[in-house]
Amino acid sequence: MWLDRIAWAVDVVSPRLSERLLEVGCGHGVAVTKVCERLVDGEIVAIDRSAVMIAAATRRNAEHLDAGRATLQVAELRSFDPGGRRFDKVFAIRVGVFTRGDPRQEFAALVRLLKPDGRVFLFHDEPSTRADEVAARLEAAALRHQWIVEAHLAHAFDGGEVACLVARPPSSR
After folding, report:
1. Which residues neighbour 62 within 8 Å (Cβ) at sequence distance 6 or greater?
2. CA distances from 133 to 118, 136, 141 (A)
3. Cβ distance 40 to 17 under 8 Å?
């Protein structure tokens, strides 16, 4: 299910050849690989709080790192400094802060990191929870922080449903 979910998420994000993307919580780097396969002169920056996960993603994506299509960094979204870069798209797959607690600092960081016409794609699933319930929590969090919700998507996989929220920052009204 993991690989199917990640492939679906990358299809939804639909990286263009020259885009600059940020993945939050990249884990083993599977989505990084799938994004890099679509890039020509674009770039993906992937962050994860775990040094162990960044090490695994680095091993998996050595070719893409060497080619300059990928950059990996141990970092939390709320304090991530991209060195002046801004992103066309940011995506996160199963990053729990967006469905529980108060992701105020994370949404503020996204405003800072996205280009004015950029989009965020939040994918999340939980065992025994329908995608529409998860999407409602994602939407409530985004709206609390004045984000503009553009779409809700859902996809059923064996063992569950994945929700996706597509939103743009408040400054792009």
Report:
1. none
2. 25, 5, 13
3. yes
pLDDT digits (tens, 9 = 90+) for 9-20: 999 999 999 999
Give the whole-angstrom CA distance, residue 62 versus residue 93: 22
Distance CA 144, CA 37 (A): 35
Q: What is the model's pTM?
A: 0.95
Per-residue pLDDT for 34 more than 90? yes
Q: Distance (Å, rounded) from C-alpha 168 to C-alpha 88?
A: 11
What's the token pair of residue 112?
Answer: 């800072």
For residues 85 and 155, give the distance between their C-alpha atoms in angstroms, rounded to a whole number.
Answer: 32
Strand 148-157 vs strand 160-168: parallel, antiparallel, or unpaired? antiparallel
